[in-house]
Write a structure and sequence with these properties.
9-stranded parallel sheet; 22 helices; 28 strands
Amino acid sequence: MLKMFEPADIGSMRLRNRLFMCPMGTGLDEHGRMPDSAIPYLEERAKGVGMVGSSFSICPDFGDAPSWPLFRFTDIQRVHELIDRVHHQGAKFCAQLVPGMGRTSFDTSVPIYSSCDIPAFWNPAVKCIPYTKEQIQVLVGAMATSAAFAEMAGADVIEIHAYGGYLVDQFMTTLWNTRTDEYGGSLENRMRFLLELIGAVKAATSPSMPVIVKFCPYHGIPGGRELEEGLEIARMLEAAGVNALHVDKGCYECWYDSIDTVYEPDAHQLDLGAAVRSVVSIPVLGQGKLWNPIVAEAALKEGKLDFVGLGHQMIADPEWPQKVKEGRSYDIAHCIGCNECLHAAFVGARFRCAINPRCYHENEYALTPAKNKKRVLVVGGGVGGMNAAITAAKRGFYTELWEKNNELGGNLRYAGAPAFKSDVKRYTDYLKTQVFRVGVVVRMMKDATPEEIIAAGFDKVILATGSLPIMPSIPGIEGENVLCFTEVMTNPNCAGKSAIVIGGGHVGCEAAIHMKQSGVEHVIIVEMLDDILKASQFAVNVLMKLRNMVNENGIEVITSASVKEILPDGVLYEKDGELKKLICDTTVIATGLEANNPLERAIEGKVAEISVIGDAVSARKVITAVSEGYHAVRCFD
């Protein structure tokens, strides 16, 4: 048996295995409560892990409380139903209790309270209001009340939220705590608030109730916590009687360390977990892209962790544990690190996943067997087309997939080419595997014509013909020294020793980084807007990391600049009314994508039913292609 599937204990609590789903917020409904969708969402994910969890707000009085409420007696019933459903699946439930956001509160239009009068993260012009000692005790009392409510609702363990630069961490950290009373100064004083919270939980719950603290032993920013202090905190928490430590890394200034993106390497937090485990005798829970079963198992066998946490991976594929246990790791849909789940909260959307259309719609969007065994044709083997074909075959339709190239993947072939985008390549490989495993008939090198499609007589045709690079009308763009970003993504060394990238959007930045990391000595990005990534519609942490990678790789950036001509040895560009020249071996075009839909008009009214999906509608993102491909088939009878 793999070690990850061995039973293990946290305090008096016995877990059936060493896997847990990290507590993560999924948003509130329109009434400020836990949404109805949360129950089947967590129930589905409780089927394989030993423990699932979610976060709960303990007090609404001091700014944002974005987690599910558990501070009124009337909140208990709803949480009780959730926990019952989790228990039905054999998992334990962890109630993570959140004292507050502090300086990281999203809503800066209302008073924000923190450890001291530090600037608010999202609007530094706003100064936080320091908690009075009396207000601190209000939070301590609220923690006791919520812990008691959690136990009444059936929670098996309480986790205190003390990490990531949130409120408790602000009290613990000199960078965010300049108090001169008993809650500031020495480490003992800065830990006082957390230790009082621990005491409150213990006093309010049964003696057998385990208590976990989630904390950051290392922040990774100037002035933040260094590991030496983090290890001392771990010792103090063990001495305070907590039953386990849940280790995290980072804060909002480096949010990508706390909430993984596609750019972080596998197991990027593992060394911190191992360091903490070396100084305490209680169990240590770790996380941070432990999605590869080999890596997760090694972390346990080598004694670096006692429990492996899966966060976004359980959103993407809730059957990860079952698939690993059954030896079907090839069937795992690996998270691609896009953070659409996080981004949803910033754009007013419902919680969602780019590669799992059923996420938060587990019941409503379930697939049903086809009533009639109809025939489905999918034209285009990119991410949308492959998902549509897989879904059609799973429903029981006879399905063909026509792809004009000799390789499936579409634009994911370029997106997943750099070493720092291996998550995307892994997902692409998964889709290719599934296409054949579910019995889709694939016809490669098949450049579909309207006549062939019409003559084939399919009951439904799904056009997933994707998008093509935009080649702007710049004099010299036909020159031999000009390449499209697609060429350098698959072969970065073709750029020579120096390259200029026209376009500082997502693709342009990734192409520039890929070339620089592959040995191109000098890379410059020329962007017409006043900043790179300004029009990119991606999650905050993803954009933060990508911007950092541009800087860390020494890529020069010229903004508010318009390229006027591409020359054999460089480009002419205009900035501030002045014409300037840059010298380079190669100019790379990365000015976006546009829809490629040459077939719809030609077959309209001549086939039984048509759906156009993904970038064939307009150039967008993985989430739209996957969703549209899935639903085009789910809703077809």
